[in-house]
Amino acid sequence: MRLQSSLQAKISKTKKRLSKPVTLIPGLIGLVGAAACMMGLMALVMAPGSYSVVNTEFPVVPATIDDPSLHRFTERPEHFIKATTPAVVMTMDAIFLGDMDSFSNHYIDSRSKIRIAHSDRAPQVGKLLGAMKKWIATRKETRGWRNEGILVFAPASNIPAAIVIQMLNALKSDGTFEKVILAGGLI
Question: Rounded to 5 degrees, what are φ and ψ at 58?
């Protein structure tokens, strides 16, 4: 009898244990943990070894561009960049104003450009715009060069993008130039 009652007690305990609802929480926690570990490992493997600035260049070519539309419209260049085209070069220390010739053939000559130093590491845009208007008027009076409506803006590669965008906006909204060309890879 004793054997039969102990056997029935074990059967009863097994029935109670099997009739309890199975909880999925530990299994789900394990799956989520495994997925998190896998995603972390994949992110670690796929991350690049170093982050850096990618130099780009925007070529300006006086070539006709054929339009493959039905009308066969051909676009002709309206403006050309010449040696007399005004240019603004921005470095971490100052803003330089001159023409393309002063930044290419006469690069070493400091008298061929105007230097506007930064104040507390902030570019002096107001001084630049004032000096630019005087410089354009002087060029027109002394040499007869008219404003062609184009400006080449060349920021150094270590200038933050937010400052470059603000400078472009200020140069465009001034109204002195129709087009402001962003030059890259020159400095």
Answer: -105, 100
Measure Cα distances from 76 to 63, 72, 79 in Å.
Answer: 8, 13, 9
DSSP for 42-58, written as a single string: HHHHHS-S---PPP---
Residue 43 structure tokens: 């992110």
Q: Which two tokens stand for residue 183?
A: 């030059």
Q: Please, what is the angle between helix 125-143 and helix 161-173, to 10°?
A: 50
pLDDT in tens, 100-124: 888 888 777 777 888 998 888 888 8
Question: What span, in angstroms and rounded, lies between the C-alpha atoms of 179 and 147?
Answer: 12
Instruction: Quickly list DSSP for 45-113.
Output: HHS-S---PPP---------EE--STT--EEPP-----TTSEEEEE-SSEEEEEETTTTTTTSS-GGGS
pLDDT, tens digit, for every residue of 139-187? 888 888 877 888 889 998 888 888 888 888 888 888 888 888 888 765 5
Residue range 65-182 in CATH 3.30.460: no
